[in-house]
Amino acid sequence: MKFTYEVEGNEFIDAGVASSKFKTALQQLGIPSTIIRKIAIAMYEAEINMVIHANGGEILAEVTPTKIYVRLEDQGPGIPDIDLAMTAGYSTASEQARTMGFGAGMGLPNIKRYSDFLQVHSEVNVGTVVEISFDL
Amino acid sequence: MKIQQILEILQGELICGTKALLMEEIDYGYSCDLMSDVLAYVQNNVLLLTGLVHPQVIRTAEMLDIKAILIVRGKSPSEDMIRMANERSIVMIRTSHSLFTASGLLFQHGLLGEEIAHDEIHL
Fold first, then answer.
1. How many other CB atoms are there within 10 angstroms of residue A73's CB atom?
2. What is the pLDDT of residues A82-111, one digit of tens each?
3. B39 touches chain A (CB under 8 A)
4. Is A19 on the interface with B (CB under 8 A)?
């Protein structure tokens, strides 16, 4: 089963709508709540990143009998050094992101922590693709 | 601790939440203005105490299945926040106490802190 969501950039109030919708969809599919929580947190962090760093993008989510896969693609500025971005505490977020309680440099480390698989492909001035999956 | 007791201990103002929701139990407290850290460290059924007033506080609570939010320092949540909390059956309480004092009063009445898992993330 596939789901797609458009994420608006710089819509700091609406950031998280896609994660909220997907969480509801997973609840309706009867996925265990402990797994839903991990997915919701990881996807929300990735969606917030998309809004604050990349002016939005597109999310594809897929539910299969064995796993849940989430792919977030943006045409943002890209990440020059992915290893650095994965470091807890490292952040390039704007002051506006900080006023909404983000930008602590915990996004990617959190996603890694809650997911079973995380892969980040990024090209400077082209965009970023974040792939996350969770085993069922 | 029931949400109703939290309201009474802090002499708080109920911003949104039904009587039935006030009877819900909370196991721990977590005090934080940084939503990234809330997402990183909260693993249990907590009351979120925060001085941050932004719709993303409600979203964060939603992702973590947090049932109640205590807004400290007398801050006022926006209409957007109240609507979002109502839609998700999240209780919001406001108190004029500081984050420290509100946390202290609840701790004194037996509400313990969420254990943080710093050993899992090397800061």
1. 18
2. 999 999 889 998 888 888 899 888 899 999
3. yes
4. yes
- ipTM at complex level: 0.89
User: Given the DSSP bridges, would you call strands A127-135 and B13-16 parallel, antiparallel or unpaired?
Assistant: unpaired
Q: Does B69 touch chain A (CB under 8 A)?
A: no
Torsion from C-alpha of A38, A42, A45, A51, nearest 10 degrees: -130
pTM above 0.80, yes or no: yes
What are the average pLDDT values for consecutive 10-residue runs of chain B, which has 123 residues?
A: 97 97 96 93 94 96 97 96 96 97 97 69 43
Cβ–Cβ contacts within 10 Å for residue A80, how many? 11
Output the six-digit token pair for B49: 């105490």
Pairs from B19-24 (Cβ < 8 Å, separation ≥ 24): B21/B67, B21/B68, B21/B89, B21/B91, B22/B91, B24/B67, B24/B68, B24/B91
